[in-house]
């Protein structure tokens, strides 16, 4: 039976997105902890696998891939019994790809990492209000994506939902989603939390992430 290896850390949103994909596909996998806070991602043996020394990294039959937005499509294309999570139709797949790019660029790098990196690696404890405002803008875009859809890329669950939920639940550490303002987004989050693998693949990891961030005793400043 095929078994892949995932290298990562539960607190990492992109790692959690891949974990959700593995669970949804019911794939056999080994999970190797790489504690980036302890510098384990900088070990020579890890850099050989992933020169960018990021998490997640996937190992499959001697091949290595990194970046969740590359790993998830690969897993579905290679191992899924059908194309539901990453549609074969050109237009539907393009919508999923757009959402993955939105997560990578605007949500993860543009919103989340701008807050997290200074807290974790620069010993800063103050978050400018402008960075919090960026989260509200993200929530607004996602609400628009969900205006006529049950999921972020259409009426069916896709890997884009895994990316979005792992990042958005992490963003809530800094700005809770206002249900009265973002009703569609709130309802979608509840749908995602009903997935049988949600708690194991994302819920416990986001709790770790939130605890780590709150341990920095951050404050929001004008």
From TrEMBL:
PROSITE patterns xref list = GST_CTER (PS50405), GST_NTER (PS50404)
Domain GST C-terminal per the UniProt entry, residue ranges: 89-222
Pfam families, per the entry: GST_C (PF00043), GST_N_3 (PF13417)
Q: Which domain of life is it from?
A: Eukaryota
Which SUPFAM superfamilies does this one have?
GST C-terminal domain-like (SSF47616), Thioredoxin-like (SSF52833)
Q: Subunit composition?
A: Homodimer.
What is the name attached to this protein's record? Answer: Glutathione S-transferase 1-like
The organism's lineage is: Eukaryota, Metazoa, Ecdysozoa, Arthropoda, Hexapoda
